[in-house]
Hints:
The complex is a heterodimer.
Chain A: H1 2-7, E1 13-16, H2 27-38, H3 43-56, E2 61-65, H4 67-73, H5 75-85, E3 89-92, H6 101-110, E4 113-119, H7 124-133, E5 138-141, H8 155-167, E6 172-175, H9 181-189, H10 199-206, H11 212-229
Parallel strand pairs in A: 1-2, 2-3, 3-4, 4-5, 5-6
Helix pairs in contact in A: 2-10, 3-5, 4-5, 5-6, 10-11
Chain B: E1 6-7, E2 10-11, H1 17-32, H2 37-50, E3 57-59, H3 61-67, E4 70-75, H4 85-98, E5 103-108, H5 112-124, E6 127-133, H6 134-139, H7 141-149, E7 153-157, H8 164-177, E8 182-184, H9 195-203, H10 205-218, E9 224-228, H11 233-239, E10 248-256, H12 266-269, E11 271-275, E12 278-282, H13 307-315, E13 318-324, H14 325-339, H15 345-358, E14 366-371, H16 379-386
Parallel strand pairs in B: 4-14, 5-6, 5-8, 6-7, 9-10, 9-14, 10-13
Antiparallel strand pairs in B: 1-2, 3-4, 11-12
Helix pairs in contact in B: 2-4, 4-5, 4-9, 5-7, 9-11, 10-11, 14-15
The structure holds pyridoxal-5'-phosphate (PLP).
Amino acid sequence: xxxxxxxxxxxxxxxxxxxxxxxxxxxxxxxxxxxxxxxxxxxxxxxxxxxxxxxxxxxxxxxxxxxxxxxxxxxxxxxxxxxxxxxxxxxxxxxxxxxxxxxxxxxxxxxxxxxxxxxxxxxxxxxxxxxxxxxxxxxxxxxxxxxxxxxxxxxxxxxxxxxxxxxxxxxxxxxxxxxxxxxxxxxxxxxxxxxxxxxxxxxxxxxxxxxxxxxxxxxxxxxxxxxxxxx
Amino acid sequence: xxxxxxxxxxxxxxxxxxxxxxxxxxxxxxxxxxxxxxxxxxxxxxxxxxxxxxxxxxxxxxxxxxxxxxxxxxxxxxxxxxxxxxxxxxxxxxxxxxxxxxxxxxxxxxxxxxxxxxxxxxxxxxxxxxxxxxxxxxxxxxxxxxxxxxxxxxxxxxxxxxxxxxxxxxxxxxxxxxxxxxxxxxxxxxxxxxxxxxxxxxxxxxxxxxxxxxxxxxxxxxxxxxxxxxxxxxxxxxxxxxxxxxxxxxxxxxxxxxxxxxxxxxxxxxxxxxxxxxxxxxxxxxxxxxxxxxxxxxxxxxxxxxxxxxxxxxxxxxxxxxxxxxxxxxxxxxxxxxxxxxxxxxxxxxxxxxxxxxxxxxxxxxxxxxxxxxxxxxxxxxxxxxxxxx
Lengths: 231, 390
Ligand SMILES: Cc1ncc(COP(=O)(O)O)c(C=O)c1O
């Protein structure tokens, strides 16, 4: 599936290391995480998956996960293994500014970009401190709430893209709730450097469990259409 | 950016960035509103006039005779609602109201915290919605009915293991989406900063009263205190005023099926990690996936524990021991028959540990058990399990 997303033209691929209690995720991602964990997915198998992909493609790859899988592996070991496998960035959904320092340090020591989150509720003061520490790009949470297909454009997110663009040269990429070409166009017109699509793609997969051929076709079509909408 | 309070290396605020504004606001309210005279006066009214504080520290003649030391029970079972949970629910609901929030959400396992929150919501005129796992809704029909009668909306949780841990996940997800007008009224000393400190401060009334009561009755401090530990709120509320004293402190965890079996003994058998916003001992696998806990008592059936308990255990200040399901049932019946007090199954864990500790105490030694709640909610479950023994 990673290969399919790559071939369809994604600029960056985000792979989720599942965690049993994903508080930032809505039902589609929760179910996918359950399926992955039941199938035996763990930190080590994630790294070997990334290694296999890296052998055949140069497309940047980012790991999205939660704090505990990283903490249990050991911060140093997690980022080092991620780098060795060929990952370029790591984003940890439940590590805000207050807790980010040891994670950022381990990332930088390993040569991994620490991807940090910002949200429409982030104050200007926090935003500056986050930008100072962030690497790669800023992950802008594009909706108040959890991941999941929403379809509508959030005016607060547009406003937030402009706010960030005014003070930082880091790429800004909104994610959470994005699935429609309408949203992709609106956010990229506002200055976003890309969009992150998660649940919408994972839903295509979830709707076709046990039919890998159909899955690949559906995912490929969806990614190609979304890529074409970026202005 | 807030100074995240740690207990040694434990605690912190591991939540999505979207929630940080709400935690900052809550911490601000906690620091500025709670200590003020207006808040304290209101709180005083609700605790004393409304909820029935202070609760007695009962000298138990029969238990003392039977166990060979001077045994006292701190009677949180006599608090309105039937458990200590109301101390925290009233405190947080009042704070939320002062902060201008109109809606309160809560999680509940056994339903005791849900009932306490529903009561606080009704008393203070606020909307209450309670997340509860589908499994627990089926197990705790009585408390579901109580919550609904009190005007709260019970929201079934179908994700994950459909128990308390998943109800907390759902409440956090709701809070992320509704941070502007909603307060998440968490039920124990768990979750991200400032919750472990906030809930502890609202529960410390238990220990403050106990300390004054025992000094008045006995003219000296107790030798040992026992409390059960689920998330750890009744225990920390009892222990806090005694932390600087020579009194020995004991926490009873859910030993479940016993050695090798399923359990909820997070401190005795777990490893530190991050769950529900805090770094603390957890029941988890080698890769950091959280495992399902088990206890006969829904209130102790949680794979995490308050971060301050992790700290107090590592420091050696509090001793934590396991009590199995069978031992808890035995002590449930023991207290009912010896003293005429039917304890909550959670509290029966503390009674069981107290019976063990009493063996090392002399006849003039003072032993206090925090009786965190009454057992009405557990009567039908124990009747079914104990069947032949009744
Ligand atoms: C009576 C009673 N005691 C104890 C507990 C455990 O919670 P905590 O450890 O936070 O006191 C509960 C939880 O539902 C309870 O209802």
